[in-house]
Amino acid sequence: MNISLSGKTAIVTGAGRGIGRAISKRLGASGASVLLVDIDESVLQEAQKTIEKASSISGDLSQPEFPQRAVDKAIAEFGSLDIIVNNAGYTWDSVIQKTTDEQFQAMLDIHVVAPFRILRAASHWLRETAKRETAEDVRVMRKVVNVTSISGLDGNPGQAGYASGKAAVVGLTKTLAKEWGRYNVTVNAVGFGLIDTRLIKPMEDAETNISIGGKHVHVGMQAQVREQVTKQIPLGRLGTPEDAANAVFFFCSPLSDYITGEVLVCGGGIRF
Prior knowledge:
The chain is built from eight helices and nine strands.
């Protein structure tokens, strides 16, 4: 089925690599104009080249003023805002007795505070536009997709901060679904299992050493653990970024116009 998003404008955070890049490409291939948002300028520019109608803005989503800048840029450049995908995130794992206040707060900041600020920044334009369309007897459906995780739904040892942030975004999702239904905005979440990105690469891989806002964080999984967990996935393999993008695309498309406040798990059947 060929689903067109022609005339739609999307914001995708964490769009420089991995799942975010795959989502951006999927939306762009369906005709949407896409504003790519990422902290890493170099990979952001590479990703932008793969999409026909795209723009980008680099910056740290955990900085209070940046989400508003991203929203303003999308509206200024494309004249609309129809899809918001809050995907940006990373892991910073420790058992709780070794988790610092900074570490825990960083997980909340990127996984729930940043989406909150993006959505708050978009709220005025979305509300006023919907009111005008309603007065003209026009219904335009718009979409929000927040990214959560099976860690946020079921918990996972060593991820008190990450799981807390991902659980909180579910509450944000369900609340905004009830607030924004009157504006013809559906708000849903996709909870990912083990998707083969740098966050679960073997720890020996150079990609698992990342720098976020001046902090150096080692992500990834021990190779043996990665292999063991993969064997527990009912579908028998890790998910690809394209698998993840397809799940998000469903909530961005007209196929989900009467679905809101829901969490779709995309994990090959695994639950921790």
